[in-house]
Amino acid sequence: MKETKEAQTIGNLAEQLEAWEGREVAGFLARQPERKEQFATLGGFPVKRVYTALDVQDIPLEDVGLPGRYPFTRGPYPTMYRGRRWTMRQIAGYGTGADTNKRFKYLIQQGQTGLSTDFDMPTLMGYDSDHAMSGGEVGRGGVAIDTLSDMEDLFADIDLEEISVSMTINPSAWILLAMYVALAEKRGFDLNRLSGTIQADMLKEYMAQKEWIYPIAPSVRIVRDCIAYCAQRMKRYNPVNICGYHINEAGASPLHELAFTLANTIVYVEEVVKTGMPVDQFAPRLSFFFACGSDFFEEAARFRAVRRVYATIMRERFGAANPASMRLRFHCQTAAATLTRPQYKVNIVRTALQALAAVLGGAQSLHTNGMDEAFSIPTEEAMKIALRTQQVIAEESNVANVVDPLGGSYYVEKLTDQYVQAIQAILQEVDARGGTVKLIEEGWFQRKIAEDAYETALRKQSGEKPVIGVNRYVEEEEALDLEVHPYGPKSAERQIERTRQVRANRDEPAVQELLGRLKAVARDETQNILPVTVELVRQGASMGDIVETLKQVWGTYRETPVF
Amino acid sequence: MQAPNTQPIRVMIAKVGLDGHDRGVKIVARCLRDAGMDVIYTGLHRTPEEVALAAVQEDVDILGISILSGAQMTVFPRVLELLRGQHGSDIAVVGGGVMPDEDVVELKRMGVSEVLLQDTPPQAIVESMRRLVRERGPR
Amino acid sequence: MGRAVPPLALVQQVLEGRLTAVARMITHAESGEEACHEALAEIYRHTGKAHVVGITGVPGSGKSALVTRLCKALRAGGRSVGVIAVDPSSPFSGGSILGDRIRMNELVTDPGVFIRSMATRGALGGLARASLSGVDILDAAGYDVVLIETVGVGQDEIDVVQAVHTTLVVSAPGLGDDIQAIKAGVLEIADIHVVGKCDRSDAHRTVTDLKNMLAMGHRNSQGYGWQVPLIPTSSVSGEGIPELLTAIDGHLEALTSSGELEQRRRRIAQTRLLKSAENILRDQFQRHHDRQISELTDRMMSGRTHPHAAAQTLLNQFRSERKP
Ligand code: B12
Ligand SMILES: Nc1nc2c(ncn2[C@@H]2O[C@H](COP(=O)(O)OP(=O)(O)OP(=O)(O)O)[C@@H](O)[C@H]2O)c(=O)[nH]1
Ligand SMILES: [Mg+2]
Fold it and tell me: How many domains does chain C have?
């Protein structure tokens, strides 16, 4: 297109738009005003009545680009779902390793293509099942893992070279990674052929999920050790899954979710680079995790935006040269906090729309929530419908046949660009205020998240944010026909017994000797904590043994809450 | 200005066990403060013993415990028992978070004064607290 | 606690150190209700045994964490501790979120420690109105040491110094302009300077800055022969805590042997007399003179009178009404 001709078209358009507002719009408004004075996305971006070519004329075409090419706005891969669809990855975990193993096999049989493990609170926080703090929580919110022997049960008869396994685990992640390695070696798998992820994103724990053991510095060092270890020995494994999801679910706005996640990313990359490892050696294995909320176009747009910002950061700030270091790949979970107790079946519809937005935003893997989300961990039935939802989108709707079908929508491109600018502005502010770790210590992110959450609560209360069944179309006391996931305290007892057995049967002096070495490694910043941990779990050391030993070296973290 | 003889309602808001879900509890703490109450937040990861004793020392009108981890049937009975051990404490115990309906019924039977679950509007939480203190009468 | 037990009936239990009675008595004191004064008077007769230590400093300087450490150290030495932790009320709603306790929670299962949070409810000077009654109650209940943590204050107007035997001023690195944030007036009230968070790499600068400021003519030796020490501590590692405890005990020793303790006791008594009088007056004004106050305010707004004259008018009216 020639310069002059384009200018003319745009010029015409501006005139037409003005005329349209004067005539058609004004006429309509006179008869019927719009529903509101000002419309906005759920994330608070004001939106216009209609978007035209005028809105995108300042966005350089190369910022939009092509899929699989810098800046990856349109997707990390050139063919996207035309090749392989996203991984359908429903989280599962409850009771003992053997209990969850059954659920895994059920999900695989139902057509699920990746595994994702949820652990119980004690495992997440690094306590053994028989610790006093674990009372009432063993095997409840996820599966209980204390020793390598539990891990063996969890993955019994599952081919770990065939299926990718993701583990939602953070402060104690390195121990589970060590168990995974020990297990794979024992079963004769090739470490370089294992694919999967540990979450191991500690910074967002202090911000949002609130699972922690040690102070920030040693925690970041553990993350660094995981990244470095995997870069050397597990070529296909994602050593860290940098999460926005929990930040969002803790109440943050969709914008804050993305900006804070990238702020954390910058810290991790800096830490690993400091050890002397070139950025292109590990960056291709960084992976992400976001929540997909209810504002349909906004969600798709912001995933496009975060890919663009990440690509720029990796190239400009860290000097990455390999395109694989610049492409952001993410797992997505539909936003659980949007799901309700009243009229809980409506949750299926909410989840379907959110899942569709995630797919249009280019997610690499997806978890859809169960309709019973607001009650308990999901039943098999609830998980099946959630999985079927993804299958309908993938196989019946045809949305997966074209890459980035929303690309070029004036509205979506504009919103994408606005998101890019807004994320970058926050990242600049974080730098200017002294960086992410300092701001976490000062509670800066935490305060923003709490403010966002409070505002959402007020907006739900006033009805400004509609929630069907809660502040709209409320029904009196419904008879609950829902069967919730049962919790058997028996399995907690069994679990405790197992762990005691392992402790009784192991070579105690060998374990003690290794725990001594663990302390020495912990005190020496330059060493990697993983090799000795692998040896420990092989000898039957429990998670609690390892965690408590390191508390003597590093102390513990105590939060100063902000409101 | 605070009239001299009206005592703000004192509430302790607690998280017990390993549960780290604090989005709701912070909303509760904040809306009670904004309604003029004195709120003592315990922070995360407390034990029933710590919470019950702290509530007695602080002589709160209400001890509110937020649980989303599923541990409600372990935590509440223990806290109630500990409070009763303190010479028949008149502190009202209130619960919130995520729990199945049958647990709510059971908890009320055991002596939990009120249970407020997901999406309870802040204003309704404030009103429940005021009602409980009114119903108890002066100390 | 049984329903509506009159305060006076609780006194005996307070003196025996019964947890629930101590707690409820503080509640009565906070309410300021008529019925509590007689009981508080009885309790007052049994005070004077505890060493009362005030801890003040800018917000976030680490006061609560330090109190926690001190409690542990005192307990290790076999002494019991009462703590009154004061936090600000919201000027908008009058409500508060009392946060000091978060750091102290782990102490609570120790029967030798009693912690009570208080909101300022508009009182200035870093303390709440009932803070000192709270101290009396803990003292009478037999706690060996009573610690008062003030709200975070960086300016002057610190009441705590008028109300305790030993004042700790806590400074810490990493709080914006650091030392500059503390007015000289606050530094001067210290019997002991604490520089907290000395586990941080930037702490030595705070120590140096503070030393320089103190050297610049501020009072660091007191009349009764007490040299004001500067003690770096860390509530993370526990460093400096034994030294701090020694200094706190040393200060009491110095006060006692020099006779200064009696002076301070007298000063405390006088302050409390005046504070109480002020409170009584203010309450009575507010209760009975709402209308006059608002009328006089109107007249000030329209320039027909000025604050001093208006106050005189108010007091005259008050006096004439009070005449038998
Ligand atoms: C948001 C969320 C998260 C966020 C939490 C962020 C945060 N900092 O709070 C994230 C993503 C980090 C998270 C993580 C996990 N979660 Co979660 N989470 C939720 C979710 C979706 C919503 C909870 C929420 O915040 N709602 C919004 C707030 C405002 O509501 P609320 O907390 O209910 O509070 C309101 C009322 O309950 C009441 N209230 C609450 N407390 C109190 C107290 C008093 C005194 C009063 C009067 C009222 C009151 O007032 C509030 C305002 O109305 C629920 C499911 C659901 N839809 O409820 C699952 C849920 C609670 N999570 C669950 C699980 C299992 C986990 C994990 C263990 C998963 C895992 N294995 O990794 C982790 C554990 C994290 C941890 N550290 O504990 C389960 C719990 C299972 C159970 N109880 O049996 C649930 C039910 C989901 C499910 N169906 O499986 N989660
Ligand atoms: N590194 C380090 N941090 C500390 C130390 N003491 C306290 N902190 C941190 O400083 C912050 C404030 O500590 P608090 O003890 O609550 O401070 P405070 O003076 O009581 O605060 P206010 O009561 O709000 O004025 C918290 O985040 C603590 O973790 C210390 O010795 N070292
Ligand atoms: Mg404090």
Answer: 3
